[in-house]
Specification:
The protein is an alpha+beta fold. It is about 40% helix and about 15% strand. The chain contains nine helices and nine strands. Strand 7 and strand 8 (about 200-205) form a beta hairpin. It is globular, with a radius of gyration of 20 Å. The chain starts with 8 loop residues before the first helix and ends in a 7-residue tail after the last helix.
């Protein structure tokens, strides 16, 4: 959610008019995140989030915007997009595809507790169940083939020990392909900065622009790897147990998922280590940018390689 494209007030006012969103009061760029340009927008009618898409093309975006509407209409606290006068959730602003969605209440958490982790675990399971009725599929663009491409691109930028660790983990992952796991629509990026809470009540799941069709367990691993880590980049047993138990109460894990859990935790850590390395070594320019530390996931992967907790029965 960095700001790569600057939007001037007259441009935004014309855009809001196409969506019948009210008269503009104020707007401000959002610095968190790294993929798209985002603004908080306040009008005399409501509060919105404006997104200008810097990577995804207009042909790809209906999958995400329709998914957000589908989930919101099935009781998941996602932001419902607004439709313009032609009934489309997607339009253009500053030469970029753009969308306007409801701004949900609440705020992100820096230090989630056990109750927060349980709430996000239950909500993720409900998200997965609601996604089963979404009629469109999308391959994971940051899956195993992307891992190999990313490692090849990074090799010349990394010290030998880091390159060797990546090569070894890629080999491990490709020797454990798990094609028999339950699949469906996943969020794929449900970090703490993509969930909103009012006290201990979950009020929003946001930023669905990595959503895709993949193993549901992989999505659980991505979430655990952010919500349940300690300062030393290990999993906190109590928060991990709370998240997984709450998830399993809504959608119980299969025997195949129990067996695959250690591999999936490592896969999720690998994916975000790679993306953060790419952001570090091949940055994009933006007015407000926010690059995250790759070493956090290198340390987490090393921890998973030595030990992983079992899923709750």
């Amino acid at each position: 959610m960095s700001v790569y494209t600057r939007v001037e007030r007259p441009q935004l006012e014309a855009f809001l008019h196409m969506f019948n969103a009210g008269e503009l009061l104020d707007y401000v760029g959002i610095s968190a995140g790294i993929e798209n340009t985002n603004y908080f927008v306040n009008t005399d009618r409501s509060r919105y989030v404006l997104t200008l898409f810097e990577q995804l093309g207009a042909n790809e975006l209906p999958f995400f915007l329709n998914l957000m509407a589908h989930l919101a209409e099935h009781g998941i606290p996602t932001a419902h997009p607004l439709a313009n006068a032609q009934g489309s959730y997607l339009d253009a602003l500053c030469g970029k595809p753009a969308a306007l969605v409801q701004r949900l209440s609440g705020s992100t958490l820096e230090h989630p507790n056990v109750a927060h982790c349980a709430a996000i675990g239950a909500a993720l399971a409900q998200f997965h169940l609601a996604g089963q009725s979404y009629p469109v599929e999308r391959a994971n663009p940051r899956g195993p083939h992307w891992w190999r491409e990313a490692v090849a691109r990074l090799h010349a930028q990394l010290p030998p020990d880091a390159a060797h660790q990546l090569d070894a983990e890629i080999s491990f992952q490709f020797s454990h392909r798990l094609d028999n796991l339950p699949r469906g629509i996943i969020h794929a990026d449900l970090f703490r900065d993509n969930a909103l809470f009012a006290d201990e009540n979950l009020s929003g799941i946001i930023d669905l622009y990595y959503a895709c069709t993949d193993a549901l367990l992989y999505d659980v691993a991505v979430t655990v790897n952010d919500w349940c880590v300690t300062e030393t980049r290990e999993l906190d047993p109590e928060r991990t147990r709370a998240l997984l138990t709450a998830y399993a109460a809504v959608r119980p894990f299969t025997s195949d998922e129990h067996a695959a859990w250690p591999v999936m935790l490592r896969a999720a850590a690998l994916r975000f280590w790679l993306s953060r390395l790419l952001d570090l070594h091949f940055p994009r320019e933006g007015e407000l940018t926010h690059t995250k530390d790759p070493q956090a996931f290198a340390r987490l992967l090393a921890s998973h390689q030595s030990h992983t907790p079992a899923l709750p029965t």
